[in-house]
Amino acid sequence: MAQAVASSTVTRTDEPVLRTDDLVAGYLPGVNILNGCTVDAYDGELIGIIGPNGAGKSTLLKAIFGQVRIRGGAIWLKGEEITSLKADKLVAKGVGMVPQNNNVFPSLSIEENLEMGIFQSPKKFAERFEFVTTLFPELEKRRRQRAGSLSGGERQMVAMSRALMMDPSVLLLDEPSAGLSPVRQDETFLRVAEINRAGVTVIMVEQNARRCLQICHRAYVLDQGKDAYTGTGRELLNDPRVTELYLGTLAADEDAKRKGPATAEPPTASGFTA
Ligand SMILES: Nc1ncnc2c1ncn2[C@@H]1O[C@H](COP(=O)(O)OP(=O)(O)O)[C@@H](O)[C@H]1O
Ligand SMILES: [Mg+2]
């Protein structure tokens, strides 16, 4: 499949930045996790991917990023087929990925982590460092600090910045708010929205369905490896089929909201705690 990729010269007008077309993929022989998944992200969009645990959300991002065997369908980046390309090629072509776990090098400093993000074009380091520290000014102040000594929320900022170093055409985020306190979750959503406003097309997988739908332009509900519903964030928030199917998640979110943040710690202007 990858061979067909290199020679592909399809150009279409109003091309999505990223498109997965009827994607079928899985880990074990004979077991498909993605069952015909079609997702588009157009230039400048913030796309949310929600759905129950095990629906295949992480698998979708991993499949885009060349980490899961693709058995059917195709992936397109700005009109070029990128199906089954390896991660290093995808990064060079403009796909940035922030996995849910182990997304920073803990023994390296913040600055070294960012260098790792752009090792393919080290000459661009200064220019890109300036871009990411405009979004995350606290990273510049603490550039020599070891990433392993940072809080979960801070590590998430470093991981997103690392992926942004290559100036990606599309940024894939797997549950950036997972494991964070409600306050830090809110902050993370604000940061993702800022990254998007800075012109980066984002595809964000989220377990916090309500918050995700509130900030994204459009979203897809994944169910058993298929895009079951799609619409604007607002449409899906008001779609009884979606709220019914995911009432558990949405109700739990509402519950958490009523109870207020679990921590009394207020968000700092910079997003970092002292
Ligand atoms: N490395 C793997 N090997 C085999 N099965 C896997 C692997 N990773 C995930 N799965 C299975 O794929 C399904 C979808 O998982 P995942 O994409 O992580 O779901 P989600 O992110 O929506 O919670 C689950 O049934 C999970 O057990
Ligand atoms: Mg997942």
Automatic annotation (TrEMBL):
GO molecular-function terms, A-Z: ATP binding; ATP hydrolysis activity; branched-chain amino acid transmembrane transporter activity
CDD domains assigned: ABC_TM1139_LivF_branched
Annotated GO biological process: L-amino acid transport
ABC transporter domain: residues covered: 18-249
Keyword list, A-Z: Amino-acid transport, ATP-binding, Nucleotide-binding, Transport
Domain of life the protein comes from: Bacteria
Region (Disordered): 254-274
PROSITE patterns: ABC_TRANSPORTER_1, ABC_TRANSPORTER_2
Keyword flag Transport: yes
Protein family: Belongs to the ABC transporter superfamily.
Protein name in UniProt: Branched-chain amino acid transport system ATP-binding protein
